[in-house]
């Protein structure tokens, strides 16, 4: 097998060194996928810099106009003309600044949404490939969904575990599973009819790009049930 191929190849014959290299490549791949959103953020930052300069110019023009207005009685025709010109400039800049503010806010919102989707996709890919590369066998889809759900758990918009912590958690689970092979039928409900709906519900929740407070609450409830039943061997 080629360790440079990050698709779902059979990595069961990889040496420990190849598996370590595979894991490093997974982390590098995640970093590359984040570069796109960083470039987009840089573009937004540049637009915000231009916007700051426009606001500074606007304030300067308003100051000049205020100075002219103080000399109302002694105003010359040239100053009156300058005031009219300043008023027009101010109105044009205010309109431009307002439109640009709206555009920047829209870009920020879109960028934040893309960030969430990319981070979710990164985490799913990493978790799935780590489990595959370490040849971890689960006793049921119920157990698998519960374990992957723990890796996907969030605190607000951020994952509770970073990439390194995910790798360590999966490696630890793999070592524990090797030392203590699962019993048959193993953790998870014996009634497959009750297992499938929960697994499907987890999949449905995790497919969302942005979980609501109620979604997170329900996911925690399901994960707690899974963890409890795995521990009890129900």
Describe the structure.
- Residues 51-124 form a coiled coil.
- The chain contains six helices and two strands, in the order H-H-H-E-E-H-H-H.
- Helices cover 75% and strands 2% of the residues.
- A two-stranded antiparallel sheet has the order 1-2.
- The chain has two domains: 12-117; 136-234, no CATH class.
- It is mainly alpha-helical.
- It has helices spanning 16-70, 77-133, 141-151, 163-179, 192-206, 213-232; strands at residues 154-155, 158-159.
- The longest helix is centred in the middle third of the chain and has 57 residues, at 77-133.
Strand percentage:
under 5%
Helix-strand topology string: HHHEEHHH
Number of strands: 2
Share of residues in helices: over 70%
Shape: elongated
Gap from first CA to last CA: 38 Å
Strand-pairing-aware structural class:
mainly alpha
* Largest beta sheet: strand ordering: 1-2
Low-confidence stretches: 1-6, 184-195
Tally the helices: what do you get? 6
Largest sheet: 2 strands, antiparallel
Give the overall average pLDDT: 75
Count of all domains: 2
Integer-rounded radius of gyration: 29 Å
Summarize the structure.
This protein is mainly α. It has helices at about 15-70, 75-135, 140-150, 165-180, 190-205, 215-230; strands at about 155, 160. The protein has two domains: about 10-115; about 135-234, no CATH class.
């Amino acid at each position: 097998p080629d360790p440079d191929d990050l698709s779902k190849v059979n990595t069961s014959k990889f040496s420990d060194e190849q598996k370590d290299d595979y894991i490093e490549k997974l982390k590098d791949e995640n970093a590359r996928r984040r570069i796109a959103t960083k470039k987009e953020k840089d573009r937004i930052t540049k637009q915000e810099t231009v916007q700051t300069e426009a606001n500074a110019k606007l304030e300067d023009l308003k100051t000049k106009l205020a100075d002219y207005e103080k000399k109302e009685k002694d105003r010359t025709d040239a100053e009156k003309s300058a005031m009219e010109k300043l008023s027009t400039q101010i109105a044009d800049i205010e309109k431009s600044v307002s439109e640009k503010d709206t555009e920047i806010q829209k870009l920020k919102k879109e960028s934040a949404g893309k960030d969430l989707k990319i981070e979710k996709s990164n985490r799913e890919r990493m978790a799935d490939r780590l489990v595959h590369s370490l040849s971890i066998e689960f006793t049921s889809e119920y157990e698998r969904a519960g374990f992957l759900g723990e890796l996907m758990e969030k605190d607000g918009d951020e994952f509770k575990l970073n990439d390194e912590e995910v790798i360590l958690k999966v490696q630890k689970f793999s070592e524990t599973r090797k030392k203590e092979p699962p019993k048959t039928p193993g953790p998870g409900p014996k009634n497959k009819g009750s297992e499938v709906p929960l697994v499907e519900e987890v999949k449905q929740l995790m497919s969302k790009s942005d979980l609501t407070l109620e979604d997170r609450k329900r996911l925690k409830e399901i994960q707690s049930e899974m963890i409890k039943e795995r521990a009890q061997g129900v």
